[in-house]
Amino acid sequence: MLDFYPLAKPVFHSLDPETAHNLTIKMLSRGLTGKIGRPQRFDRLKTNVFGLTLSNPVGLAAGFDKNADTLCGSLALGFGFVEAGTVTPKPQSGNDKPRLFRLTKDKAVINRFGFNNNGLEYFAGKLSAHKCPNGGIVGANVGANKDATDRTADYETGVRRLYGLSDYFTVNISSPNTPGLRALQSKAALEDLINRVLDVRSEKVAEGLARIPILVKIAPDLTDDDIRDIADITLSTEIDGLIVSNTTIERPQSLKSTSKEEGGGLSGAPLMEPSTTMLRRVYQAISGAKPLIGVGGIASGLDAYCKIKAGASLVQLYSALVYEGPGLVEKIKSDLNRLLREDGFSNISDAVGKDC
Ligand SMILES: Cc1cc2nc3c(=O)[nH]c(=O)nc-3n(C[C@H](O)[C@H](O)[C@H](O)COP(=O)(O)O)c2cc1C
Fold it and tell me: Measured from the CB, is residue 297 less than 6 Å from ligand 1?
């Protein structure tokens, strides 16, 4: 594929980050991917996870397409799956601007958007209307409104309204930008949340609809006790898997950029090591019993391979696209294919958890 991003990058990076992002979404939704050619297909990367068949394990992480505006445009970049959202029941404007910062020297991003989105009805309309020429898996990432009195009820509402419109759901309880949200990761709150969301699925299945996989997305900033509790709940309920991880509230000493003290969640290169360590610990805690999606800091085929060997069945990325552009997806796929071949793996699924 030809990639024009190196030429366009200085223009995008001369804009304020949120404006550049909104422009990117508009361009993608109009079919302007900045690339010419069809995504590559590798048999070695084809995989079946959560009962879904994916052409490759590389996905677009949540937050890039909050309103499901450009599902087909994103899939056309070569992703095996895209996760839209986070969507909340009611539309909300999020935190005051500026709320998105590039940490260029660190190849990182800080955001404190606070779930700005157009709400469930808009999102449902986009999911119902989409039909991508080459198919592809679409996940719906659901959250809670900031002013909700019963946050757990917001997750039930999201899953109920979108049921049947997406290939899987992610219950996002790990955004650092909605005050108190991460408290839902504590044992009692999480158990209640998961049981209530799973009850919605049981209702739908009883009505004759298919069983849609439901995943939970967790933070990278968890203690050993938190991991043990989450592992217990993952194993004792019908939840299908976990996404590890969201952005971090930590600020590593190594950060060099002037924006490093901005509040919010840090993502990109500095998150690679801590989120992969968390992934490995979660994989060990559940003894590989359910699939994990590894996300945080992936910027190369080798990074993706590390996540897979640490226990991820699938991977996702977002921040590296800001620095490397959309051509990165195809590069990661071909490098991953080569790395697997060199290590003698005939399929990606054989490498999962191999260095745990
Ligand atoms: C600008 C921005 C907005 C994000 N918004 C969301 C969101 O709405 N929901 C969510 O689950 N994760 C969100 N994330 C987190 C990403 O999905 C991902 O977990 C995290 O950025 C780590 O991956 P990365 O280092 O490849 O970016 C957001 C990340 C960024 C950079």
Answer: yes
